[in-house]
Amino acid sequence: MTIDSRAATWASLFQGPPPAAALREQWAHGLARNQAAPEDVQHGLLGHTHHLLWQPLPVGVVDAAVDHPDRRVRGLLAEAQPHLTAQHWA
Q: Residue 90 and residue 70: Cα distance in Å, rounded?
């Protein structure tokens, strides 16, 4: 396989219609369940999947969830992370 044919093969993966909303949602749920997902990926999933908040999270992701503009994210964080203290919310 030549470099050009390899590049063409990769480019072909991104042609055609985008994935359906249901598939994107399932991808987000799967990424959220992956505890090895990097912190920046977890941060990006806030507001896209509720599965993320039901597991131990890095401090940066918890802080981002506390400050998230969607009250549903903050509410679920309070429910799913019982070890949060009043200092987290101040």
A: 17
Domain boundaries, the chain: 39-90
Model pLDDT for residues 50-78, shown as the tens digit of each residue: 999 999 999 999 999 999 999 999 999 99
CA distances from 75 to 8, 13, 24, 42 (A): 46, 38, 23, 18
pTM above 0.85, yes or no: no
The tally of CA atoms less than 13 A away on the side-chain side of residue 4 is 0
What pLDDT, on a 0 to 100 scale, did the predictor assign at position 85? 86
What token pair was written down for 26? 């399932």
Cα 42 from Cα 58, distance rounded (Å): 9
DSSP state of 53: G
As a whole number of angstroms, the distance between CA 42 and CA 26 comes to 15
